[in-house]
Specification:
This protein is about 50% helix and about 15% strand.
Length: about 250
């Protein structure tokens, strides 16, 4: 950025901040301020959706069967007093049942993963209204009431429909089968957890060539890639589990 560009950006920041009269709870520290806005201005408007707020990690969450659906408010590490107060929102779907099953079936902790089934930033959700987000919600620069209204509308009209895609394991399997390479580990584990060993075996058979060829390619290149470090052990452990099941049936 040129010096003129820097000055223009700085002047725009100062202009927006000076005109932003609708600020809520300005006297609080950034994290406390964000929590207070969630408690006082957001939760009451979505009370009928059964969301509860957990202050310890700035998370709005609710239970739907086996699944915990949540919106996590991530604070900007640059937040300072009331000069910079910004945050982003991440959507997550978590299954305690899946995490417990993995702990019981994979003795090596590095192979267990956790119970997170889906996670997405609001920036990647095409229907999420980002008029006031643009990477971060900025309480110090934009009308706080309008930010709150935008978030509430997005929760009702975008987050809830997003969560509805993950309300049963069969529904999740059907969705993950659309992109089996990306979702391979979850597909295998959820099928195994459901007792669908034949379906897990089919997922392995249909995607085995991709993983085997990639392993050979990466190892020939003497690569210290993340694939060999992280993905290969996960793949081999699932492959072994299915092969053991096949051998037991012979």
């Amino acid at each position: 950025m040129s010096y003129k560009g820097f000055l223009d950006a700085q002047n725009d920041w100062l202009n927006r901040k000076s005109k932003n009269k609708n600020q809520l709870f300005q006297d609080l520290k950034p994290r406390d301020r964000i929590a207070k806005i969630i408690i006082e201005n957001i939760i009451p408007k979505i009370d009928n959706l059964n969301f509860k707020f957990r202050k310890s990690d700035l998370r709005i969450k609710r239970k739907d069967g086996d699944f915990e659906q949540s919106l996590k408010f991530i604070t900007n590490h640059k937040n300072y007093k009331n000069e910079i107060v910004s945050f982003e929102i991440i959507l997550l779907v978590y299954s305690k049942k899946l995490e417990t099953w993995r702990a019981e079936n994979y003795s090596d902790k590095s192979l267990r993963l956790n119970g997170i089934i889906a996670t997405n930033s609001t920036e990647r959700l095409k229907d999420w209204n980002q008029q006031f987000e643009k990477g971060w919600y900025k309480l110090h620069l934009d009308d706080n009431h309008k930010i709150v209204d935008e978030i509430i509308n997005n929760i009702i009209n975008v987050a809830v429909p997003y969560f509805s895609q993950y309300e049963s394991y069969d529904q999740i399997i059907a969705d993950f089968n659309k992109n089996p390479i990306t979702n391979f580990i979850d597909l295998i584990d959820i099928n195994l957890m459901q007792g669908k060993y034949q379906d897990a075996k089919l997922v392995l058979e249909q995607n085995r060539d991709f993983f085997e060829e990639k392993i050979i390619k990466e190892e020939k290149a003497n690569s210290n890639s993340l694939f060999l470090t992280n993905e290969k052990p996960l793949y081999l452990s699932r492959k072994k589990k299915i092969e053991n099941w096949v051998q037991q049936r012979v």
